[in-house]
UniProtKB/TrEMBL annotation:
InterPro entries: Aminotransferase_I/II_large, HTH_trans_reg/aminotransferase, PyrdxlP-dep_Trfase, PyrdxlP-dep_Trfase_major, PyrdxlP-dep_Trfase_small, Tscrpt_reg_HTH_GntR, WH-like_DNA-bd_sf, WH_DNA-bd_sf. This is GntR family transcriptional regulator. GO terms for molecular function: DNA binding; DNA-binding transcription factor activity; pyridoxal phosphate binding. Coiled coil: none annotated. Keywords: DNA-binding, Pyridoxal phosphate, Transcription, Transcription regulation. In the C-terminal section; belongs to the class-I pyridoxal-phosphate-dependent aminotransferase family. Residues 13-81 form the HTH gntR-type domain.
Length: 467
């Protein structure tokens, strides 16, 4: 096919990056649609009066950006609804490196050696004293009763989530819980609202389920009530998915007044809410969930993954009365039931205070890394929570996010750009997400900050022109 990228070509920068950005803009404007086959390298090179090597580099860059997919023997295609914006660590882009990069790209709790010791001690004790139902479980789709009872008490007393054990569903992590809630409420083609910048897992899920995901404007506290009201009037969505505590990637967190205002909008429109509260334990007590304000029209999702150890994928879905019989078939179809062994560990940790202790320690460790990051990156504009997992860092004028990401990777550092978190098409914010927990070793973490600080203080390296 013949495509005209000329209107989208920037007037500066390396030619291959200019072509990649032109492809991105053409996709955002709708001139290139998912499933479109791009011209062969030689044809586009002739059209743009550049070398074939330049087009090859441009296509390779576009693939790294998640815009296109190269298929052997078939050509290069604009990505379809299979999450083309997965982050590099999910695509395994770094596997070819001889030495693994310092990872400041992945949302991960800090796991010092003491966490591993607790985990092993629990497993040793369970070897002798595990509840017999953990091995024999087959029919309790929502989860074993003693595990749901303990979780329900904890959800109510610690997080303020309304409900009883009959309203709780055990699921394999928060992502599974969000999927179950959406599948309960939404059908193919329905509109779902969320924050304009949102977790890439939700974006991928919307594509998988065929939903129309629409972004709502946000500020430093997350979704803005007036913008949410306008979007509800415009789209009449069946569901709104929100993360009121430490929104990924910005860290935006609603105070209780903002939560009151958002709840009022949803109540007035009668719109279902799915609250992703996976970061609740990373905040000090005092914030009450949106679900507590809208108990009859809200699904609440949380897990222990972000505040304890990442391998403990114990997720908890709280379902409003009258909806459980719709949710359980989706759970049965996707995993039959959550893994009882995982929840037996979680049950013991909830009972003996380990969860609260690890969450408190996680907040302390993250606070230390927040301070260290601000020291290394002093002078740069950034947003974060005092005990947040990320820094939302604005780039100095000379850098573009994808250029910084690629240069950092060449120097042994992995970071994330805003592209993967964008719900709607448009120019991404000139920011990067710096994650604080991906490296357990404090020295490697500090090394990564040193690399990043140096890069931010330099001009982007000149690129060799390919003729």
């Amino acid at each position: 096919m013949t495509i005209d990228l000329t209107p989208y070509l920037p007037t500066h920068g390396p030619k291959y990056l200019a072509i990649a950005r032109a492809l991105a803009e053409a996709i955002r404007q709708g001139d290139l649609t998912p499933g479109t086959r791009l011209p062969p390298h030689r044809c586009l090179a002739e059209t743009l009066a550049v070398s074939v090597q330049t087009v090859s580099r441009a296509y390779a860059q576009a693939e790294k950006m998640g815009l296109v997919q190269a298929r052997v023997g078939s050509g290069t295609w604009i990505n379809t609804l299979d999450d083309g914006q997965e982050t590099d660590y999910l695509r395994g882009a770094n596997m070819a490196m001889d030495v693994s990069p310092v990872d400041l790209s992945i949302a991960h709790p800090i796991c010092p050696p003491g966490h591993h010791l607790r985990f092993r001690e629990t497993l040793r004790d369970m070897a002798d004293n595990a509840h017999p139902d953990v091995i024999d479980a087959c029919r309790p789709i929502a989860g074993l009763l003693h595990q749901r009872e303990r979780a329900s008490q904890w959800l109510h007393d610690t997080l303020g989530v309304p409900g009883t054990p009959d309203d709780r569903v055990l699921c394999n992590g928060a992502a599974h819980g969000v999927m179950l809630a959406i599948a309960t409420l939404v059908q193919h083609g329905d509109v779902v609202l969320t924050e304009a910048l949102s977790d890439h897992g939700l974006i991928a899920l919307s594509r998988t389920l065929g939903l129309q995901l629409r972004g709502v404007a946000i500020d430093e506290q997350g979704v803005m009530p007036d913008a949410l009201d306008a979007a509800c009037r415009r789209y009449r969505p069946r569901v709104v998915c929100l993360t009121p505590t430490q929104l990924n990637p910005t860290g935006a967190t609603m105070d209780n007044a903002r939560r009151d205002a958002v709840a009022e909008v949803l109540a007035r429109h009668g719109t279902w809410l799915i609250e992703d509260d996976v970061h609740a334990l990373l905040e000090p007590p005092g914030l009450t969930p949106l679900t507590a304000r809208l108990p009859r029209q809200s699904f609440h999702v949380t897990s222990l993954t972000k505040a304890t150890v990442s391998g403990l994928r114990a997720g908890y879905l709280s379902v409003p009365r009258g909806q459980l019989h719709h949710t359980l078939p989706r759970l049965r179809a996707t995993s039959w039931m959550a893994t009882p062994l995982v929840f037996e560990i979680a049950d013991r940790w909830l009972a003996d205070g380990t969860v609260d202790a690890l969450a408190s320690e996680q907040r302390r460790l993250l606070a230390e890394r927040q301070q260290l990051t601000r020291t290394h990156l002093a002078g740069h504009t950034m947003a974060s929570r005092p005990t947040g997992m990320h820094i939302w860092l604005a780039l100095p004028g000379a850098w573009r996010a994808e250029e910084l990401q690629q240069q950092a990777l060449q120097e042994g550092l992995a970071i994330s750009t805003a592209q993967s978190f964008m719900v709607d098409q448009g120019p991404p914010p000139r920011r990067i997400r710096v994650s604080l927990g991906g490296e357990n070793d404090p020295e490697r973490f500090a090394q990564g900050l040193t690399i990043l600080a140096r890069l931010l203080g330099e001009a982007p390296p000149p690129m060799l022109q390919i003729i």
